[in-house]
Each structure stands twice: as structure tokens, then as C-alpha cells.
Specification:
Elements lengths: L2 H15 L2 H7 L4 H22 L10 H27 L2 H8 L2 H12 L6 H17 L8 H26 L5 H20 L8 H25 L5 H7 L3 H13 L5 H21 L1
Helix pairs in contact: 1-10, 2-10, 3-4, 3-9, 3-10, 4-5, 4-8, 4-9, 5-8, 5-12, 6-7, 6-8, 6-11, 7-13, 9-10, 11-13
């Protein structure tokens, strides 16, 4: 994994992650069913990849590695559930823009947990992201669905920031595919019991959308994301993933006629612009 390949991997992963909200909107099932189904299909894809294409073998993990993978799986599952819940109560645009706040969390947490110096420009980025989030909703009212969806999406972003830092800390000695495989197994153990009673009511087409989530938005995208963290800092990957809302909003506009308002677009410009500008200043 060279620096160039890591950057290519994380860019492709951002594109695939950007489709998560689209497939989550198309699958008319509960967030816990979508989360469990996504993980099940991802495990199948990862096992096939390990068997057919990857030369790396599953290694034996020590207790510390196992515990950290379990924790990362819990974070991943809760992150997915909160994001799909946000998509269902609000819109793809609001959910993806709220989730786009995770680079701000990453910068603050990376400085705190890894004792890396947080620059003034990064603090400014966090402030601008917060201002952008206020603009994303038509009216920042805690009783509205739009605001509720935004808060769920921001919570999803916080969990994803913690996940990216944990992956950076724990993946240097573990193959990316194995790490992604075990994390998805944890998600299945968590959410399948919650979704079990409703599985019989899932439409056939919903299984297809969950298969797309598991194949492209998880099996491929998550492996690329974890692999890139062997070379890149979490804050670098966070900047690239700031492009994710652009893909999500564009597809939602095309497929669901979810036309973003001028206020929402302005908030999105502030969020994405602050993240990209902060990265350029750091460079």
C-alpha cells in the first residue's frame, strides 16, 4: 500500500460510501434490518474475497486485538443504524451533510487521543462546520423531523470518527480484509436479534438494495478505507470523505427529486469548503 494507492483507495471508497444513503432510502425496511442485512452481505463478499483473491490468510488474534475489533464493530453498527434512521426521518441530503461533520470530530479527537497538535486553522474549520450544520435544516427546531434527522446524522459522524481513529490504532498489524470481516460479524451479532421478528416482511427488492450496500458500500468501500489507514492519517481520509455528500445529494436529487434548498446548499458549501481548505492549509 503506497501513498498513491492509498489516496486512490480512499477516493474510490468515498464514492461508494456516498451511495449508502441512496440504497438505504430505496430499502423500505427498518434501520436495524438494513444494518443487519448490510453486514450479512458484506461478510459473504469478504469471505469470497479472502478465499479467491486475497493471498493473506486470517491470522490468530490476541486478546487485545480481539477486544479492539469488537469495539470497532459496535461503533460501526451503531454508526450505520443512526445514519439509516436519519435518512428515513429526514432526507438523504440532510443525512449525508450531517454525517459530513465527522472530519471535525476526527481533528479534535485525533489531537486529544494521539497527542497530535491541533492547528488554529483546524479549530476554525470546526467552527465553520458547526455554522454549516445550523444552515442545513430549514428551521433549527428540535421538534422538526429535519432537525431530528440532522442530529442523528451528526451522532453517526461522531461514531465514524471514533471508528476511523480506532482503525488507525488497531489495523497496522491486522490485514484490512480480516479487520472488516470481523467488524461486520460483530454488527450481525448485535443487530440480527433486533431485526429477527421483522425479517419475514422484508420485500425481495429490499434484499437487493441491502446486497448492494453489503457488496459495494461495505465489502469494497470499507476494505479500501481500512487499508488506506495503514498509510494515511485519519484526518487525511476525513478530508477525502468530505466529498461523500456531493455524491449522495446528486443521486438523491436525480432519483428522489430531493432538491436541496439554497440554505442547505450554503450550509453544505461551508461544511465541505471548511474541511478542504483546512487540509490545504495544513499541507
Amino acid at each position: 500500500m503506497t501513498l498513491r494507492n492509498a489516496l486512490l483507495a480512499v477516493h474510490l471508497g468515498a464514492l461508494l460510501f456516498g451511495l449508502s444513503g441512496i440504497f438505504g432510502k430505496l430499502a423500505l425496511s427498518s434501520p436495524q434490518i438494513i444494518t443487519a442485512g448490510r453486514a450479512m452481505f458484506a461478510v459473504v463478499v469478504l469471505l469470497l474475497f479472502t478465499k479467491l483473491f486475497s493471498q493473506a490468510k486470517l491470522q490468530r488474534l490476541n486478546l487485545r486485538q480481539t477486544n479492539l475489533l469488537i469495539l470497532s464493530g459496535v461503533l460501526l453498527g451503531c454508526h450505520w443504524w443512526m445514519f439509516f434512521h436519519s435518512v428515513q426521518v429526514s432526507s438523504v441530503a440532510i443525512a449525508t451533510l450531517g454525517f459530513a461533520s465527522f472530519p471535525a470530530f476526527t481533528v479534535l479527537l485525533e489531537g486529544l487521543l494521539f497527542r497530535e497538535r491541533t492547528r488554529p486553522s483546524e479549530f476554525a474549520m470546526v467552527a465553520v462546520v458547526c455554522a454549516g450544520l445550523v444552515l442545513v435544516t430549514p428551521d433549527f427546531d428540535l421538534g422538526s423531523q429535519a432537525t431530528s434527522g440532522l442530529l442523528w446524522a451528526v451522532g453517526s459522524g461522531l461514531l465514524f470518527a471514533l471508528l476511523s481513529l480506532l482503525n488507525r490504532f488497531n489495523t497496522r498489524s491486522i490485514e484490512p480484509v480480516q479487520s472488516a470481516l470481523y467488524q461486520n460479524l460483530v454488527v450481525i451479532v448485535m443487530f440480527l436479534p433486533l431485526a429477527w421478528s421483522d425479517l419475514g416482511s422484508v420485500r425481495a427488492i429490499d434484499w437487493w438494495w441491502m446486497a448492494m450496500l453489503g457488496l459495494f458500500c461495505t465489502g469494497v468501500a470499507h476494505t479500501l478505507f481500512v487499508a488506506s489507514l495503514k498509510v494515511l492519517k485519519a484526518r487525511t481520509t476525513a478530508v477525502v470523505f468530505a466529498l461523500e455528500p456531493i455524491y449522495g445529494i446528486a443521486f438523491a436529487w436525480l432519483l428522489f427529486s430531493e432538491q436541496p434548498t439554497l440554505r442547505m446548499l450554503l450550509g453544505g458549501v461551508l461544511i465541505i469548503g471548511a474541511i478542504v481548505l483546512s487540509a490545504r492549509l495544513a499541507k
